[in-house]
Design a protein that fits this description.
two-stranded antiparallel sheet, alpha/beta, Arc Repressor Mutant, subunit A, globular, 7 strands, Rossmann fold
Length: about 230
Amino acid sequence: MSEQTRKNEGGTPGPTRVMVVDDHPMWRDAVARDLAEAGFDVVATAGDGPQAVRRATATTPDVLVLDLNLPGMPGVQVCKELVGSQPGLRVLVLSASGEHADVLEAVKSGATGYLLKSASTAELTDAVRRTAVGDPVFTPGLAGLVLGEYRRLASEPEPAASDDPKVPQLTERETEVLRLVAKGLSYKQIAERLVISHRTVQNHVQNTLGKLQLHNRVELVRYAIERGLDDV
């Protein structure tokens, strides 16, 4: 099975389902066409925020390629709503803005990656493929910015809990994977480092998220940095 396929409901391989959201029709259609030609299943497109939420809810794509500047509802709000209601959804922001504030707001809203519209078609298709399996994908220069923000957030004290539950016990391998995630390594790099499969890395991350009752990689990295795992 290629990296651009997933298991469908019958358990057989099927193409990764993608939805493209952008308010410029020519750009939106061009991106959708490029992704379809690359082997992805473009299940829907949308030109504004409310339409994006409705269509994504109806079609349940694996990856949402999302512009931030949308009429009706900002892209970050679209991201927040859909990631909150569809836990398996990955969001790749494709924006003309490289402003640090926009990048950080998108990541905090649940985006897995952030790519500038100056990216080539090959870079876009690779980014969608990597986003589909949960790898963080950022235009060069933005990844360090995001990791720096993780560290800043981790330095802020968490609100005190009245009855702090017992911290879940992670296996030695889960802790090892978590430490490498906190260092900013991709799933592929972790797999190579630990000499295990990409799928095994994904399984360890999903198990860790479940045990810690976290929802996405952003929260996972913050958890790890708060406990100093990135410095080990």
